[in-house]
Amino acid sequence: MEKQIIANWKMNKNALEADSFLSNLSLTPGIDVKIAPPSVLLPTMRDHAERLGITLGAQNMSEHVKGSYTGEISALMLKDAGAKFVILGHSERRNLYHENNDVIAKKVECAVVEGLPFILCVGGKERDTQESRKVVKHQLQTALASLTARNMRGSMIAYEPVWAIGSGKIAKPEEIEAVACAIQEEVQHLFDGEEIPILYGGSVNEENIEEILTVDGIGGTLVGGASLDVQKFMQMIKTTGEYS
Ligand code: PGA
After folding, report:
1. Main-chain phi, psi angles of 55, to 5 degrees
2. FRET pair for 101, CA 20 to 30 Å: which of 17, 52, 67, 90?
3. Is the pLDDT of residue 1 over 80?
4. To the nearest whole percent, how much of the chain has pLDDT over 90?
5. Which of 5, 34, 165 to mutate to test the pocket of ligand 1 (most atoms within 8 A of CB)?
């Protein structure tokens, strides 16, 4: 299966910086590169990204379809602005903005209804692998409860241990493999054997990406901090291409 690389820019870069990033990006042909910039940049980046063959997505969205929800953005609005996917359930949303599994389940449902593929992030604060397996299984069961195998097509799951995000520490390959295996087992159990790509995220950079891409069961990476630097991002795209 082709390996994925997805940049999560979080709340970084303005329109000028985004434009200069894209102008300096020279891409390895044949790799599907995805970037999730701040939503307000989607319309401004859209044409440039399309010319480069980059797929844009969003980092979050409302759990409602429309209405009186000040400050929120719906799945349909994101699609309108050029998003082709949305990241849901990121631990920064869970921890800083108190999104619980029920809210995330509603967001997942909205994304499915609007035909917007999602990347569901799972993972908790625990260090123990057995505990991590339990936590991610519960997160998957609650977030995906109302979906069918068909609803999952085009979507992915990202395993991101909370302690690995932005810390410079990555989980050990055997831990990543064990949790990725638990995720795949749960997805297959929920969706009659349907396999979906599982990504790893948390302090991925140009130096450790190779080690992560060689872990059994890992279909790609979700990269935060290191994806903001165009040189590092290009290096990571190149390495991803070598493992696809
Ligand atoms: P990081 O973030 O690569 O900066 O650790 C990853 C993420 O939060 O998706």
Report:
1. -95, 130
2. 67
3. no
4. 90
5. 165
